[in-house]
């Protein structure tokens, strides 16, 4: 596999990459405060988790840029932090130090699978129609997250979900959506970043004047000292007990396929592929992803993973490691300046997430929709990702339905050994849900 990565050759290209990195960071920065909010419910100190989150995001994204040379940010994953808190610590009554140990050992397994190219072979075993469908499904998932963050889509007791009522906050979101869309259609450099800044400014202004549901920027100061109390507080011994084996497996399976699907989706959407059509520098990217989970256990956080919000920076023109380096460096000051994040409300990043969905849905036109034995698995993978609010559920049922329909049509030779192995792990993962 070729590991050649085009480097920016002009000042203009470098500026594009830097703006793209800032755009990805702004779309991802919420994790700095959201991850501690989730993990603190498991008994971990909020300030210490915030410090761990920043450190994991900084080192992992920097490694992605310098080592794997891909424009993808890496940080503690949403979903994985909820599993850590509500399933492992609160549900199974596992002490959080032991759970951190399980995260560390899952990272070690990731590293072994990545170093020996097993994860790369798994990527190659994913049929192309499923790759395209996963890309589109993640695009829909990102858009759904944006709509929910904006209050455009809300829970409804009768219809499960419904449209939110028009209110000042929603008006701010719609302003940001159409202004950012206009910037993009005009091919304006830094369109996504400018859209987020414009939306933040409008939200701040209307929040002061109009009030009501518009998010008002509430300053909590500029400086907060880092808390390193969680560093190396994991329990490596008790986390290796047989009782924790299902927990480690769940971290491995969920993290593996969340990461794999994100790399495949972003690479497919941005054409970051090598001469064989495989994701660019995939082995190094997966090693970085694995190292992030290992670091998370050591620093005091739930597993790290590649971030689908990196699509915001890719849409802004990010194509090289400089994008990830820029995003990673922007995490570091928030060891001390985390209160400043209150200046960027969710309604300001929501339009970018929604518009990224339009960007990532493009590859689904490559699926042969009239060839139903491939169209059905692709459709299931694509729609179950947003409908179940889980990337893992989408890809599991995509894999299983692909195998079942190929077998039913007497085409077992089209099922690779690697895909059979994936199916076995998918079934095990479903039994652990």
Automatic annotation (TrEMBL):
The chain crosses the membrane at residues 18-38, 44-65, 72-90, 96-118, 130-154, 166-184, 191-210, 230-253, 329-359, 379-403, 415-432. InterPro entries: Azg-like, NCS2. The keyword DNA-binding does not apply. The keyword Metal-binding does not apply. It is found in: Endomembrane system. It is a multi-pass membrane protein. It holds the Pfam family Xan_ur_permease. Keywords: Membrane, Transmembrane, Transmembrane helix, Transport. Belongs to the nucleobase:cation symporter-2 (NCS2) (TC 2.A.40) family. Azg-like subfamily. This is NCS2 family permease. It comes from Chryseolinea lacunae.
């Amino acid at each position: 596999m070729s590991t050649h990565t085009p480097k920016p050759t002009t000042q203009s290209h470098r500026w594009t990459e830097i703006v793209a990195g800032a755009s990805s960071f702004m779309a991802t920065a919420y994790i700095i405060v959201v991850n501690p909010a989730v993990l603190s419910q498991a008994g971990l100190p909020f300030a210490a988790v915030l410090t761990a989150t920043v450190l994991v995001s900084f080192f992992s994204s920097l490694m992605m840029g310098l080592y794997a040379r891909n424009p993808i940010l890496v940080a503690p994953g949403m979903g994985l932090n909820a599993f850590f808190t509500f399933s492992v610590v609160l549900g199974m009554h596992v002490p959080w130090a032991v759970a951190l140990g399980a995260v560390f050992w899952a990272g070690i397994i990731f590293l072994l699978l990545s170093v020996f190219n097993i994860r790369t072979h798994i990527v190659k075993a994913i049929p192309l129609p499923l790759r395209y469908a996963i890309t589109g499904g993640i695009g829909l998932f990102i858009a759904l997250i944006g709509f929910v963050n904006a209050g455009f889509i809300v829970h409804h007791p009768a219809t499960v979900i419904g449209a939110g009522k028009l209110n000042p906050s929603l008006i701010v979101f719609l302003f940001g959506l159409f202004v950012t869309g206009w910037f993009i259609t005009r091919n304006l450099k830094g369109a996504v970043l400018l859209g987020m800044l414009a939306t933040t400014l409008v939200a701040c202004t209307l929040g002061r004047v109009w009030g009501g549901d518009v998010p008002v920027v509430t300053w909590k100061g500029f400086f907060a000292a880092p808390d390193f109390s969680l560093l190396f507080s994991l329990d490596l011994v008790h986390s290796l007990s047989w009782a924790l084996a299902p927990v480690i497996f769940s971290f491995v399976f969920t993290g593996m396929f969340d990461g794999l699907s994100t790399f495949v989706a972003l690479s497919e959407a941005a054409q970051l592929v090598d001469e064989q059509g495989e994701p660019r520098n995939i082995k190094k990217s997966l090693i970085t992803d694995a190292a992030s989970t290992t670091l998370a256990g050591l620093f005091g956080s739930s597993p790290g993973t590649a971030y689908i919000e990196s699509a915001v920076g890719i849409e802004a023109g990010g194509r090289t490691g400089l994008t990830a380096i820029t995003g990673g460096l922007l995490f570091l000051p928030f060891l001390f300046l985390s209160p400043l994040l209150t200046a960027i409300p969710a309604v300001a990043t929501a339009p970018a997430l929604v518009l990224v969905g339009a960007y990532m849905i493009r590859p689904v036109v490559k699926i042969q929709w009239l060839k139903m034995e491939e169209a059905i698995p692709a459709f299931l993978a694509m729609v179950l990702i947003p409908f179940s609010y889980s990337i893992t559920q989408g890809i599991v049922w995509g894999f299983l339905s692909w195998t079942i329909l190929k077998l039913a049509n007497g085409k077992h030779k089209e099922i690779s050994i690697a895909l059979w192995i994936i199916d076995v792990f998918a079934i095990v993962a479903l039994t652990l849900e």
